[in-house]
């Protein structure tokens, strides 16, 4: 594909068996020509990916994909070209979204651990609204990430219950 290497995001061109045909420069950070896309998809996510991509000619999904020997969560956008008989796949990292939510969660922990906060009348409704807001932002994440966030939320709720009389 002409000038594919100029694409600023990971863009992959895969054959019907998910072997890499071509990629943007950032796409080659994931795979080299001839390597199979399924080799970088988390084992538990690969059946989901195969089922959805074979059922729908275009769409999007969340997948845990190996990058630099660790798995990261990505939004995967794909479209099959009947003319070329290739899958066009784009990967968008979701790390920045989780870092922001993590910072907000840590801010709540810091606030509740602050002695000045404990001395004044805590507003339970406000704190629970913040927690609910954080959960809603992550409601479309994979089960593993949702469980991690839910564990943090339970810790916050437990801390609030201990400090509210």
Q: Could you report the average pLDDT, rounded to the nearest whole number?
A: 78
How many structural domains does the protein architecture include? 2
CATH architecture of the largest domain: 2-Layer Sandwich
> What is the helix/strand order?
EEHEEEHHHH
> How many runs of DSSP E, i.e. beta strands?
5
Poorly predicted regions are none
Q: What can be said about the biggest beta sheet?
A: 5 strands, antiparallel
User: Which class best fits the helix and strand makeup?
Assistant: alpha+beta
Total DSSP helices: 5
Sheet with the most strands: spatial strand order: 2-1-5-4-3
CATH superfamily of the largest domain: PAS domain
Broad shape: elongated
Explain this structure.
This protein is an alpha+beta fold. The protein folds into two domains: 4-93, 2-Layer Sandwich (Beta-Lactamase); 96-163. Helices cover 42% and strands 23% of the residues. It contains five helices and five strands. A five-stranded antiparallel β-sheet has the order 2-1-5-4-3, with helices on one face. Helix 2 (95-113) packs parallel to helix 5 (143-163) and helix 4 runs antiparallel to helix 5. The model has no long low-confidence stretch (mean pLDDT 78).
